[in-house]
Amino acid sequence: MRLSDLGEFGLIDRIRKQVKGLSAGVVGIGDDAAVVPLSSGKYLLLTTDMLVEGVHFTLAMPARGIGHKAIASSVSDIAAMGGVPKYAVVSLAVPPSLPCPVVSQMYQGMIMAARKFGVEIVGGDTVKGQKVIINVALTGEVKKNEVVYRHGARAGDRIFVTGPLGRSLKSGRHLRFVPRVLESQYLVKRHKPTAMIDISDGLVADLGHILAESRVGAVIEGRAVPRRREASLKEALYDGEDFELLFTLSPSKAKGLEKHNKSPFRVYRIGEIVSEGEGLQMRTTGGLKRLKIKGYTHF
Amino acid sequence: MRLSDLGEFGLIDRIRKQVKGLSAGVVGIGDDAAVVPLSSGKYLLLTTDMLVEGVHFTLAMPARGIGHKAIASSVSDIAAMGGVPKYAVVSLAVPPSLPCPVVSQMYQGMIMAARKFGVEIVGGDTVKGQKVIINVALTGEVKKNEVVYRHGARAGDRIFVTGPLGRSLKSGRHLRFVPRVLESQYLVKRHKPTAMIDISDGLVADLGHILAESRVGAVIEGRAVPRRREASLKEALYDGEDFELLFTLSPSKAKGLEKHNKSPFRVYRIGEIVSEGEGLQMRTTGGLKRLKIKGYTHF
């Protein structure tokens, strides 16, 4: 069997089983970031993200934007856990024939994003490669009573996203997006999301992760899914790399968030968590329709 | 200008200057691992290492060995700072056509190495790539009074290594070496090395890093450099990937280590730190000879 037969999530599942048992007392592979003990009141968060030339970006894109994305997408993982980002180490593979300004501009993009989002780049590794590969490993911190996982959604919870979705890759937004750290901090301090994830694989795929980890189903209101300019519903559902937060709130917390409408940013309620047996469905003018859980996968 | 003109250390130097000023109170790019605050008595260590197919390994090598090396070389970076390894996150790029057992065996090698050296693999990222790329980011902990940098060597200090050098790549040893965590712990608790590094670029290149950071020179005794079986002096001086510790001790600490010979492992004294102006020299039967600081570089 080849990896292309197994699929990306099949591979991740295999690795999880292989690694399992090794990690006592640690929330391991499966969330946006790993959660390990730090102090009596805090967890340390750890995330790693690899960007590959020709898969996640091309050298025709602005190099600063590529650098921005490398840092911002890791920051988004920390935000998805309810944490604040701290220290990054950057590994970079580069072909020797690459013009120096390209590397400088990539770093410039990383440095500017790091400053903007409160990250310190504290180390790295540079190696030769046939293609440009950027790996950012980032630590974060989260108060123990503010950490949010994918596995806490319950039937009856309302489902929200922090912004319009779709066409992030086509519009170039994926090279300049702002990860939702402030929004995440606001939510975990006031509204206690039951589950949270950042939308990187696409709304349906990432909601699928929450449903699988929480062992629940969901009904999405097709009309309520916010779309970026020119994005179709299909693009809003399946495009990746939006980096908005997708989270669930208990009915009472949801009412609190919506009623007073005190939140300094807009949130969009897109549906409701239901029991596992009902799977993932979308309500349209034509009634309820079952959605296949698929999104951007690498294999 | 292209990266091949700038060279690897030229690139690292550039990146350092670009990142500098960003990291207040942090020992940043330049040591084997970054050192950041953790608690009143401890620092958090952070290191990242990228292994690229066709550069650091080939798929003709045993996949378990590749996995072993990925974890063990990061563990070696933590040991070089006087720390103990803790949590790893692994990014993996793989071509979809790769047979599944290759990935399983690589992970098996990582998991076995992690167990052996006290590391927990707590998360990761898997992506598509044209070549196999493994990035391991590893945290460690070190007591504040036990951390060792590259910059502390002083004229008069003795220079030691923890084992014979050379032919690690040719002999396959680089796929099964044991990083010197226990030796490092013994040294930092009893003998306070003034500077330490692990030999990954080659003895001369890595001693060069200590000399540059400490602003000193060194005289190596050619006859005293321990060699692996069949290794020439040249191979012991310039081959990379030995992953032995190279460290310096004050004359009195050196005497203590050598006299009582209580160390549970063998150490080899190979020379002495001198003033910066004298550069790096090697004593042979023919007298003193200046050594060019070069080693394995990626560009």
Can you tag this structure with a few keywords?
299 residues, Phosphoribosyl-aminoimidazole Synthetase, Chain A, domain 2, 27% strand, alpha+beta, 2 domains, 60s Ribosomal Protein L30, Chain: A, homodimer
Walk me through what this model shows.
The structure is a homodimer of 299-residue chains. The first copy, chain A, is an alpha+beta fold and 299 residues long. Chain A has two domains: 31-143, 2-Layer Sandwich (60s Ribosomal Protein L30, Chain: A), CATH 3.30.1330; 158-290, Alpha-Beta Complex (Phosphoribosyl-aminoimidazole Synthetase, Chain A, domain 2), CATH 3.90.650.10. Helix content of chain A is 31%, strand content 27%. Chain A contains nine helices and twelve strands. In chain A, the strands form two sheets. Chain A has a seven-stranded mixed sheet, with helices on both faces. The relative contact order of chain A is 0.16. Chains A and B meet through helix 1, helix 2, strand 2, strand 3 and helix 4 of A and helix 1, helix 2, strand 2, strand 3 and helix 4 of B.
